Amino acid sequence: MTRSTLRIAFLFPLLCAGVLCAALPAGPGVAAPGAVTPAMREKVIIDTDIGDDIDDAFALAAALNDQHLDILGVAAAWGDTGLRVRQLQRLLAIAGRADVPVTQGPATPNTTPYTQKRWAEGQPVPAAPVPSSVDFILDQARRYPGQVTLISLAPPSTLGALIDRDPAGFAKLKRVVMMGGSVYAGYDDTGYGPLKGPTPEYNIYSDIGSARKLFASGVPLVVMPLDSTRLKLDEVKRDLLFAAGTPMTDALALMYHQWRHLNGWGQITPTLFDLVPVAYVLDPRLCPTTPLRLVVGDKGETTPAPGPANAQVCLKEDKEGILDLLMTGLLARQ
After folding, report:
1. For residue range 300-334, what is the model confidence (pLDDT) as tens digits?
2. What is the pTM (predicted TM-score) of this model?
3. How far apart are CA 188 and CA 175, in angstroms?
4. Structural domains of the chain, ranges and CATH numbers in brackets
5. Are residues 262 and 113 in contact, defined by beta-carbon separation less than 8 angstroms?
6. Count of H helices and E strands in the chain?
7. Distance (Å, rounded) from C-alpha 277 to C-alpha 281?
8. Which of 126, 153, 184, 265 has the most CB atoms around it within 10 Å of its CB?
9. Cα–Cα–Cα angle for 251, 156, 95, rounded to 5 degrees
10. Which secondary structure element, helix H or strand E, spans residue 328, and what is its range?
11. End-to-end CA distance of the chain
12. Phi, psi of 282, deg, nearest 5
């Protein structure tokens, strides 16, 4: 059985057995076997700081290419959120998903280079005011109580603003699935040899106050820390993607090359941190979780502590399974 078949079996309970199901035609108003109906799709909002590191772009491409997600909106977070709106609008148009609302979170100071600025500026400034992310997310959470997954790929500034505005409305979310933190492994760990230990992780230490509010909010929280997100997109896979010549892979190639030359870190091989939360929502088996109580320290540490768990934490991911999900989804569009 292939991984794709396993994912379908996991996501959609079988209504009939084996060959009988294949042999019988679908009746009027009945979805064909394997078809994705609106009721089966996971309602999500993606909060992203696309434009600095390159991983957000790949994570969004994976989400936009998967029919199992009902993407209610994409929210620009952290730093120059106005320019991030333009980048998101351009990417959604290329994906054929200009119908997905783009919203703007609170702008903040940001010292990280906006490496894909030139690509973002290829999209005109919006002619009409862009909706507020805080208003939009609260509206969707109230409209679909207990049904909306918020995928957080950015410093949690927008989430902190949501909690400040309306903690009861925030509590109507089904869950938050986030990239953030460092429990036992840090940036210097390679996945080989003894662990060097945790380090403050960018999303958390960028907004410690909002992170503390989130971990204390009581909303179901699924965390993908550095322990499970140091996922490398090697040269062989990059070449396969960039040679595909689809509108999305061409866009990713352009953004990647801008990131490569402007990131200031000398990096060539991107680490796809933010792909892991998206992959988890699509198939939780790709990143099994452990219940932990995490406390956010003064320097942005996320330290396990005694007491009731406040998060489900993925400490070990299926690297090849997650990369297969990305590659298969993007290359199937050729």
Report:
1. 999 999 999 999 999 999 999 999 999 999 998 66
2. 0.89
3. 30
4. 40-331 (3.90.245.10)
5. yes
6. 14, 10
7. 6
8. 153
9. 20
10. helix 319-331
11. 24
12. -75, -35
